[in-house]
Amino acid sequence: MSLLIPGPVTITKNVQEGLNANSLSHTGPQFTTIFQSALQNLKRVYNATQAEGNLPLIIAGSGTLGFDVAGTNFVNPGDNVLLVSTGFFSDEFGECLETYHGANLTVLKPDTVGGVVPLDEIATELRAANGKYRAIVVTHVDTSTAVLNDVGAIAAVTHRESPNTFVIVDAVCSLGCEELQFDKWQLDFVLSASQKAVGAPPGLALGMVSPRALDFALQKRPTGSFYASLKKWAPILQSYAGGQAKYFATQATQLVSSLDTALQELLQRESVTHHKELSEWFRSQITQQLHYKLVTTTSDGGAHIAHGLTALYVDDPAKAIQEINKTAGAIIAGGILPEIKDKYIRVGHMGASATRDTLQLVIEALAASQ
Q1: Which of 16, 210, 234, 337 lies 20 to 30 angstroms, CA to CA, from 288?
Q2: Which residues are recorded as binding substrate (predicted)?
Q3: Number of C-beta neighbours around residue 93 at 10 A
Q4: Strand-strand pairing, 2-3 and 330-331
């Protein structure tokens, strides 16, 4: 059975072997070497190797833990935060910051489901705020709509209109399959997770923190969290990055080992190009040949369509999912955005099982279900 949901993904044999290893001492020299390698490779995947002082994060937990890391370390209660929402997961991030960390949230949404907020609207809001926003929060790819935000352009607008505002990005469904330039775009905190295009098992929250964001976090009072506090994690991660073990919480040794293998595999191939070519081929088949309509708007020539998954409208989602499962031997996902939950399906094209052959079977099943 092919796993073609938007994560977790099917992992490679080599990554699987990392999970099969015996437990290691989480402060011993063997694991220290593995963890140091994973932290260094994560910086390379983020394109965060040029600036001094970037802090890579690998912490046991789901990608959602990154929401709490953001709220705990970069937002004070009562701080103003601008949320650029493109779907369910954008709103989840906003709920975390507002409800659990006391942020004063302003939300910008596109005019239509599957669209993006225009850059000039973001610029106008930042300019009118006159520096009041502590952070702008953007979901690079919202898995509920398959909308791809132009993070580089949004960051540039933010630096121009409100240079002291932190640029915080959810890259759970983009790291490894979309262009992400941490240093070049001058991002402050980018959270992600292990189980999507990175190609590792679920269970690790990933991230990258800029020096100015880290300085803020280390001086912040109160922190508001114990496990998610960078006051606790920064010394640990910095020590491991330097080849010296240090204890705060027990590391998930097998998960980190499998992650390091996945990161190495990711760096050895043109992952972003691969996902772009595969997704564009798949979309052309279902839209041009089968005439399905995408959830993501195409009025901009497809510039804001993600490359790790496709969201498409179908008349009967349950029937389509069943047909794909039965005839293509594939597991796909239903809709998750409340406004259109029962009107669409989502097909992931990340991970070892996402190939032209497996996706061709999905295309044939979609044709049969029309």
Answers
A1: 337
A2: 346
A3: 27
A4: parallel
N- to C-terminal Cα separation, the chain? 22
CB 30 within 8 A of CB 243: no
Cα separation, 54 vs 167, in Å, equals: 14
Helix (H, G, I), strand (E, B) or coil at 67: helix
Judge contact between 174 and 306, C-beta under 8 A: yes
For residue 62, give the DSSP letter.
-
3-state secondary structure of 208: strand
For the stretch 271-298, pLDDT in tens is 999 999 999 999 999 999 999 999 999 8
Token digits for 142? 């919202």
In the block, which residue shows the tokens 């047909």?
Answer: 323
d(CA 32, CA 257): 10
Instruction: Please report, for the chain, the start and end positions of each structural domain, with discontinuous segments joined by +.
Output: 2-6+270-368, 13-267
302 Cβ neighbours under 8 A, 6+ residues apart: 283
pTM of the predicted model over 0.70? yes
- Tokens 């999905």: give the residue: 362
Partners of 330 in the beta sheet?
2
Neighbours of 18 (CB within 10 A): 21
In this structure, the dihedral spanned by the alpha carbons of residues 203, 272, 277 and 326, taken in order and rounded to 10 degrees, is 0
Question: What confidence score (pLDDT) does residue 64 get?
Answer: 96
Considering the domain 13-267 in this protein, what is its CATH number?
3.40.640.10
User: String of b and e for 240-252 (b: at least 16 CB within 10 Å)?
Assistant: bbeeebeebeebb
pLDDT in tens, 42-52: 999 999 999 89
**Which residue, among 313, 337, 354, has the nearest Cα to 143 in the 3D structure?**
337
User: Which CATH architecture is the domain 2-6+270-368 placed in?
Assistant: Alpha-Beta Complex (3.90)
Q: Where are the beta strands (DSSP E) in 96-235?
A: 104-108, 133-139, 141-142, 147-148, 166-170, 189-193, 204-209
User: Given the DSSP bridges, would you call strands 141-142 and 147-148 parallel, antiparallel or unpaired?
Assistant: antiparallel
269 is in an annotated binding site: no
